[in-house]
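can u do me a favor
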């Protein structure tokens, strides 16, 4: 056992590869590939940190989460909007939108009224406490990532879409997560 406190006995010991051995790039990655992967990983960290920092600022200054703030802003600019239209506007699942609405109704920031002939449908409107939250919160209300993406040109967005689709496939990630607001992750 090594006496170095940084050594963890559960970690595999490093072994030297014989000079005659030729490991494949797939097994160990070539230097250029490893360096590129490391650079991309660092860029993801920067993006995630920017998103996380923005949502932390929102919660600190406004007292609500980022998804709730975005919900308030959509309702504020679309008085009378229904839950289904809210879900479409935020590009989230209807259940997610319903849960956000429920929490904001309980907090007294929005009202959900049944005024249409279809008594199941509700119309949402922002109340004074919700307006105060919007006034105190830093923007952009939808988040810094959607705002930044909206400023990119169509060709860049197309490349990002294709490259991220390949990354998602490689990760074998659950694509149902696409309907969850970043602020709730």
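np, heres the sequence
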């Amino acid at each position: 056992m090594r006496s170095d406190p940084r050594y963890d006995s559960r970690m595999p010991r490093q072994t030297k590869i014989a000079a005659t051995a030729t490991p494949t790039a797939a097994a160990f990655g070539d230097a250029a590939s490893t360096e590129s992967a490391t650079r991309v990983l660092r860029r993801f960290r920067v993006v995630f940190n920017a998103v996380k920092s923005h949502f932390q600022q929102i919660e600190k200054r406004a007292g609500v989460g980022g998804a709730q703030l975005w919900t308030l802003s959509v309702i504020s600019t679309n008085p009378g909007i229904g839950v289904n239209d809210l879900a479409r506007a935020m590009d989230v699942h209807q259940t997610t939108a319903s849960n956000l609405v429920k929490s904001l109704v309980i907090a007294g920031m929005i009202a959900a009224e049944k005024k249409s002939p279809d008594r199941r449908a509700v119309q949402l409107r922002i109340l004074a406490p919700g307006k105060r939250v919007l006034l105190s919160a830093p923007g952009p209300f939808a988040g810094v990532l959607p705002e930044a993406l909206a400023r990119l040109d169509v060709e860049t967005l197309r490349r990002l879409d294709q490259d991220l689709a390949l990354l998602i496939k490689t990760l074998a990630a659950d694509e149902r997560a696409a309907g969850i607001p970043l602020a709730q992750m």
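The radius of gyration is 23 Å. hope that helps!!
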